[in-house]
């Protein structure tokens, strides 16, 4: 996994935590930290989380190393 994908994954996790807080407690952490939903910094964070989600969409279709290996490795 590349550095960009790891950073995107971190942003996606932050977004998921924020949505969990909104769903369970009606508390938007990003808006609370950066000055409301319409504040420029909040909108930037929301946008970055959205882009991160799109980047992570590629991980869904990336085969894992275990799937790529069709036969067990043997030593001869």
Commentary on this structure:
- This protein is mainly α and 76 residues long.
- The chain has one domain.
- 72% of the residues lie in helices and 0% in strands.
- It has helices at residues 3-25, 29-34, 40-61, 65-68.
- α1 (3-25) crosses α3 (40-61).
- The radius of gyration is 18 Å and the shape is elongated.
- The two termini are 31 Å apart.
- The mean pLDDT is 88.
- The chain crosses the membrane at residues 7-34, 40-61.
- Pfam families: DUF378 (PF04070).
- This is DUF378 domain-containing protein.
SSE arrangement:
Blueprint: H1 3-25, H2 29-34, H3 40-61, H4 65-68
InterPro entries: DUF378
Protein name: DUF378 domain-containing protein
Keywords: Membrane, Transmembrane, Transmembrane helix
> What percentage of amino acids are in beta strands?
under 5%
Arithmetic mean of pLDDT: 88
Low-confidence stretches: none
The main β sheet shows up as:
none
- Rounded radius of gyration (Å): 18 Å
Count of helical regions: 4
Spatial separation of the terminal alpha carbons: 31 Å
Record field, number of beta strands = 0
Please supply descriptive tags for the structure shown above:
76 residues, mainly alpha, elongated, transmembrane, DUF378 domain-containing protein, transmembrane helix, DUF378
